[in-house]
Amino acid sequence: MKRKMSDFDKAKLIYSGELILFSVVFLVLGLLIMLHVINLSKNYRYIFTFLTLGGGVFIISDFIWLCCSKKRQKKNSFLDKILVLPVGVVLIVIDLISIVSGIEKMPYEYFQYCCSSIFLYVALVYAFQGIYHYKVPAKALVHAYEIEKKKEELEEQKKLENKDEEK
Predict the structure, then answer these.
(1) Contact residues for 118 (Cβ-Cβ < 8 A; gap 6+)
(2) What gap in Å lies between CA 2 and CA 12, rounded to an integer?
(3) Which residues lie closer than 8 Å to 80 by C-beta, 6 or more apart?
(4) CA pair distance 152, 121, nearest whole angstrom
(5) pLDDT score, position 120
(6) What's the whole-model pTM score?
(7) Nearest to 121 by CA among 67, 79, 85, 93
(8) Which of 2, 11, 32, 42 sits CB 3.0–4.6 Å from 37 for a disulfide?
């Protein structure tokens, strides 16, 4: 006899599946760049440098915000933020080296290996999170499920009260 999967288990499965899918996408992109299948144009180098500089600052400030905000700690996992923290630091360092040295003067291989390494690391992080969050649900997912459960209980109570009033 098959046991029906609960809505919460379905949500965990979907969330973990999305993380694994992102992992596969980053893995493929990282390998394609590393193996010269995708070539990085000069425009890409400029876009990559300035976008990732902002991204690195965001990753670090997001971690600091999580550390300082009790409200965010209830919905976010320290593990998730700590795993991507090295990416933020590395992105800022790589981008500052590129800007100071001159993006045009940097060898193509510098961008190729930096970009592919970052993509491969992020792929590993997403793969780990996909497996981990299936076993240990994300705090935001648990929080959303609890809110939905409370709403359903309130609606059920209102229905019971309305039936009692009709009698």
Answers:
(1) 30, 52, 87, 90, 91
(2) 19
(3) 129, 138
(4) 41
(5) 97
(6) 0.84
(7) 85
(8) 32
